[in-house]
Structures are given as structure tokens and as C-alpha cells.
Amino acid sequence: METSEILNRLQSIVGAENVKTKEPMSSHITFRAGGPADFFVTPESSEQIAGVVAFAKDAGIPYFVLGNGSNLLVGDLGIRGIVIQLLDSFSDVSFTEAGGFLVRAQAGAKLSKIGNECVRKGAAGFECLAGIPGSVGGAVRMNAGAYGSEVKDCLVTARVLTQDGEVKELSAEELELSYRHSIVEEKGYIVLEAVFALGKGNPAEIKAKMRDLMGRRRDKQPLEYASAGSTFKRPEGHFAGQLIEEAGLKGFAIGDACVSEKHAGFVVNKGHATAEEIVGVIEAVTKKVQETSGVTLHKEVRFTGEFK
Ligand SMILES: Cc1cc2nc3c(=O)[nH]c(=O)nc-3n(C[C@H](O)[C@H](O)[C@H](O)COP(=O)(O)OP(=O)(O)OC[C@H]3O[C@@H](n4cnc5c(N)ncnc54)[C@H](O)[C@@H]3O)c2cc1C
């Protein structure tokens, strides 16, 4: 299908203002690297999301769902097909009092937005998740977690769009959430909405706890540089950062891609790193850690698009 026809069809589904072509993905991922997406759409409703997916499938065009881009590395050659970003235009959050609170959030709502609302309403139990710079969709997909708490602890249900275009409500149990894993990816689901159960708490205490955790992040993590957070999953019985440090790799760099001096578990982009340089550092670290400790590191950051 011609580019102009694809563009017309996408514009008719989500509106002309919500479609871009050749969109630089470095503006949409926290690693600040990677090439352009052929088509980039920002739907505003579940119906529009389903419409884009149905069109892409009919036309045989690949599509990729993007949240806040905080767990991703996009290849330097970019993404072929359609990127569907679920973020600000699909980010409603509502609270219902039910003993504690039931919080219904669209997939594009940032966890920080839910956190801010929790402070206003006095809803407790989301403090550890509020500092993770992702969207609800991205967080459910990988059962995001921090400081001893994970999505699994408060998720009740998630509404997903299946590959067949069906909308399903799945319980947390059915999503099979475990360490940085759910069945969302293997089933090719798109998370549309999630419901979290939170308790009642004191707004000042909730705010203080969130501030404390954000302070700990600033102290320990290289937030001054672009990254995708922890580059590697925690290997059973070890800490990735410690193994990398013990392998003598703190500060190891290829171009502007570098193992953080502050926290060796983070590969950071100190300026204008290419995806190729970032991949080079990740591969070199994996190899050296295997040699020095015998432990195999597995990436937590997800790679997508075409790499050189
Ligand atoms: C400084 C920093 C600190 C971080 N700290 C933590 C931490 O403490 N704990 C932690 O767990 N993570 C952390 N992360 C990683 C990241 O924030 C989380 O993994 C987050 O959940 C990713 O959400 P996202 O919206 O950015 O997803 P994206 O990066 O946009 O996407 C990640 C994956 O999820 C998929 N996806 C996104 N939205 C949907 C959807 N609606 N439906 C289906 N699939 C979807 C994408 O296709 C992709 O495969 C950190 C990252 C940074 C940069």
C-alpha cells in the first residue's frame, strides 16, 4: 500500500492531528536514541486503537505499542510500520471509594499522575510505584516494581485488546504476573485500562513516603542522564550492578554510551549515543560479566525496530 494511502486511512481513524510520519523515536524514548517510525499515531479512545490495529492487520502492516518509552531501545534505522502511542491522550484516571479506593486508569496514564492523585485523595499503597517513569500499560506489561512493591500487589483487573480485536477483562491472576513479566507480551495484548485497589491513608504521610523514595532514587540512580532505568534484570541470588562493578566495568564507554559511574546497573546516554553504541556497551557488559562471574545477565530493557 502507498504511503499516502496508509496516511489517509490512519487519519480517517484517529484524526489528522493524531498522525505523524517519519517521527524521530529518540524524542519518545527516555534513552534519547533511535531512528524514525514510519507512522506514529496517538489514539484517543479504545475504538480508535481497535480501528488502527484492525487496519494494520488487514493491510499487513506491523504495529508496535508505545507507552512512555522508559523501558525501550529503538534501533538506529527506526521502526517500520505503525507506532501506536498510548500516553497523554489516553490517560484518564478516576477514583471510587469502596472501603479503600478502586482506581481506574487508562493505559496511557503515567504512574506519577496516579501517585499525585493518591496524595490528593489519601489513597495508600501506590507510593513505591509512583516514582517509576512509565505508563500504566507499560507497567502492567512487565509487572513493574520498586522498593519491595510491584504492580501485582495492587492490580485487580486489566482490560486488554486481543490480537483478534476482542476486548477482554482479565484478573491479575489471569495476567500471570511475576518478576518483570506478564502474559501481555506473549499474547500480543494491548492493555487499555487497569483497575488498582488501594487503601485509605493520610495524605501528608503518603506524600512524605513518595518524597523519601524519590530522594532515594536521586541519590542512587543517574537521573541526570538519559537511560531506560535498570538495563538488566536482577539475576537470581545476585545484583546486576554489583556484578558489573566487580567486573571493573563502571564507566566503560563506547562513544556517549556508558556504564554509569553512579550505579553500574544503568547504561546511560551521556549525550548523543547511537543505539548501536548502547547495544555495544550492553553486549560487552554481558560478555565480561559472564566471564568474570559465570552469571548470565538478561536485559530488562526491550529492543525494538531495526538495528544497524
Ligand atoms: C530512570 C528510570 C527508572 C526506572 N525505574 C524503574 C523501577 O524502579 N522499576 C521498574 O519496574 N521499572 C523502572 N524503569 C523502567 C520503566 O519505567 C518501566 O519498565 C515502565 O513500566 C515502562 O513503562 P512505559 O510506559 O515507559 O513502557 P514503554 O517503554 O513505552 O514500553 C515497554 C514495553 O511495554 C509495551 N507496552 C507499553 N504500553 C503498552 C500497552 N498499553 N499495552 C501493551 N504493551 C504495552 C511496549 O510495547 C514495550 O514492549 C525505570 C526507567 C527509568 C528511565
Supply the CATH class of the largest domain.
Alpha Beta
The CA-CA distance between the termini, in Å, is: 26 Å
How many beta-strand segments? 18
Q: Helices and strands, in N-to-C order?
A: HEEHEEEEEHEHEEEEHEHEHEEEHE
Question: What is the number of independent domains?
Answer: 3
- Average the pLDDT over all residues and give the rounded result: 97
Radius of gyration: 20 Å
Low-confidence stretches: none
How would you describe the shape? Answer: globular
What does the largest sheet look like?
6 strands, antiparallel
Structural class: alpha+beta
The CATH architecture name of the largest domain reads: 2-Layer Sandwich
SS element count, helices: 8
Q: What name does CATH use for the topology of the largest domain? A: Uridine Diphospho-n-acetylenolpyruvylglucosamine Reductase, domain 3
β-strand percent reads: 25-35%
- What is the percent of helical residues? 25-40%
| Ligands | flavin-adenine dinucleotide
